[in-house]
Structure formats: structure tokens, C-alpha cells
Amino acid sequence: xxxxxxxxxxAALGAIPSLAQSPxxxxxxxLVVVSDADLGSASTxxxxxxxxxxxxxQLTTIKxxxxxxxxxxxxxxxxxxxLASAKTLAVPAAGGLAYVLESRIRPEDxxxxxxxxxTEFPGGExxxxxxxxxxxxPKAKFGFPVGRKPIAIDVNKNELILSTMDTGKELVFIEAGxxxxxxxxxxxxxxxxxxxxxxxxxWHPSGDFxxxxxxxxxxxxxxxxxxxxxxxxxVEMVGKPLKVGADPSFGKFSADxxxxxxxxxxxxxxxxxGEGEILVVDFSMDGSAEHKVASQVPAGVNTxxxxxxxxxxxxxxxxxxxxxxxxxxxxxxxxxxxxxxKVGADGALTKVSDYPFEGIYPQSVVFDKDGSNLAVxxxxxxxxxxGNGGVEFWTVTKGDAPALKKQGAKVSLGKGAHTLRIIP
Length: 424
Description:
Elements lengths: L1 H11 L17 E6 L8 H4 L10 E6 L9 E5 L11 E2 L6 E8 L12 H4 L2 E9 L7 E7 L6 E5 L2 E5 L7 E6 L5 E7 L9 E6 L5 E6 L4 E10 L2 E7 L4 E2 L4 E6 L6 E5 L10 E8 L9 E10 L1 E6 L5 E6 L17 E7 L5 E8 L8 E3 L5 E6 L10 E9 L5 E11 L3 E7 L1
Antiparallel strand pairs: 1-2, 1-29, 2-3, 4-5, 5-6, 6-7, 8-9, 9-10, 10-11, 12-13, 13-14, 14-15, 14-16, 17-18, 18-19, 19-20, 21-22, 22-23, 23-24, 25-26, 26-27, 27-28
């Protein structure tokens, strides 16, 4: 009895470490991550050389709090691709299911190099549904065709909106049943010319609008959702699409839906040489005025995507820089960073600081449910042997002087980790 009391007293005084404390803090039920093993290395995006091994694409679920070993971390084989947009994975806030786009498929084993992996990689056509109710043991359920080279997907409750490269199927709507099977499947009129494809799309928080990015004309636009008896029936364009830089891609609404933030990478995926930008777009929701760019600010080099804090006061970009270069080049594997911005009431961004870290080709970042921590995907590390990707974690200081601090541990995953989604 005395021994127990002494142990408790020492623990309270900090004389011994707490057995319950974890070096990873992330306030959520779980994370879902997809990893693309078909390239073999992020450098394939640059030089086209496939450095594959016997690993396969997979989806990983991480349950919090994280425990030592593999308990609470589960995997399922699911075809996916980093060569599409930063929105090839969609997870409803309630969890239960994950939806994964198969934008590209694994090349034949005899193929060892492409001139341009971005354009020559063989195209997929399926949407896969994965049961993630048990975060320790996700199960791939089924897949079904949605159109050639599906690019981006977003979810609003049980409503999925996605884009493909197929003419006539540029904009696809799916009402998912409880098991993930399509209860309704609609090819919606995108009202686009044949030269344009939808590179990214986003549900408005209200579920009444969908923002989209056009890859050829470099514009963003807005669809109004038309419903009948509460069911989506059609969409109609609101106003005219707006020019937003040289290579616009990933977009996200503020929590209140007043502002739309758009990433302009200023170059092809992984190959940009100069800083990108984040543009703040104010849409005219009723079409009474023109959409406008309210402000813009420089971002990092080869930024993959960004996250907005739940309270709307911070935005963080994840920047690959030249980390994905072939390992024979000077500076390969280095230069990745996070950039932290403060967000004003009008949506304007003010840069706080850059936070460099080790890791190759990070592409995705998410806040936890109260904005106290961040998770960041890392495609791979500058390591020989089998090599792995991972998820790294950062602690967020809130308030008038926000800051980030890297946590001491990470979760190792299969090579090619590229897109994260949170289950609050």
C-alpha cells in the first residue's frame, strides 16, 4: 500500500514518466490515409522513372489515441493515385465509410519509365468504397466505374460529387446508401466547353452550392444545387467563371461559407520552380454581381494543399518544394515545409512563418477537431532499403501569435502516403 502511494506521489511530481502519456497528440477519433505505391518514388513525377517494388496501393486507418506497435492502425489494399488532385479521398464527418478514386492504375510490370508520368500513366475509372467502421481493420468492399480518369471527389453527408475526364461525365453526382452503394447516380450538365475539365470541386457548407476549378482556362466557378423534395435534381451555373492565376487547383470554403480559398501552384504538379499563391475568392451566390478575387498572398513552392482551422483563424499550406527531385540531384529530399497564415475576418491572409521539416513530397495537411494539432502526410523519406511514408504531427499555438511545433513521433505507413482525411 505504501509502495503504491509513493509511486503515485512521484508521478504527480513528475519524477517518473506518466504511463498514459503519448508522444502523439491529435484530438480526433481517427485519420484515413491513402498511399500510392505504383510510382515507386515521388521522383517519378519529375523524371518518369518507375522505382517500384512489390508493395501495393493501400488505405490506412489510424485510431486515436495512438498505441505502440500496430494496434489501432489498419490497412486495406485499395487502388489510388497521387497523380490526380488532392481530393481523391472523401470521408463523411461521421466516418463509417471512405470513398477512394482510382484515377490511375498500376502500369504493366515491363514498363520502367515514362517521358511524362502525369500524362502517360494508364487511366482508371472506378470509385472504391471502404468500410472503416472498425479503425483497426478497414475492409475494401467494392468498386464501380464512374468515368475515365476520375479526378476529384467531395462529400456532403451521403451526397458525393466527383469529376472525371470523360466527355459527358465531367460532373457526376452519387447519393450513397448506408452501405455505400449508389442509390442514385446522375451525370450532371457541367455547362463547359470540351477543352475544359474540372480539376477540383468543393461542397459549400450549406450543401446548396458546389465550387469548381477548371484546368485549362484556369478559372473557378460556382454551381447552384437544384433540389426537388429534398433530393438533388440538377445544378446550374451561377455567374461566369473567374480567372484565378496560372495553375489553380485545390480549393476550400471557410467554415461560414463566405470565402473560397484557392491554391495556384504556378506550375505542373511537383515541377513548379517559383512560389505559388493562395487566392481568396468571394462568390456572388445569387449571381447579382461578378465573382471577385478579394485578396491573394504568396504560398510555398510545389504546395500540395492546405487546411483551415475549425475556428477559421488559421490556414496552413504543405509545401513539397524540390524534395521530390531524383535523389542524384543536389538538394533532393530536402526543402519541405509548412507555412502558417492568420486569417482575417474578411478572409485576407497574413503570413506568420515557415516551418521546415524532413520528408519527401508532403501533399496533405489536416487540423484536428478543435484546431490544437495538425497531421501531415509524407510520401517517403530519404532512406534506402524498402522505404516508408508516414504521417507527422504538429502542435498548434492559438491566439494572436499563432505558432507550430513538431511533435516527437510519427506513424509510419506504406510508401506513397499522399492524402489525409479526419474522422472527428
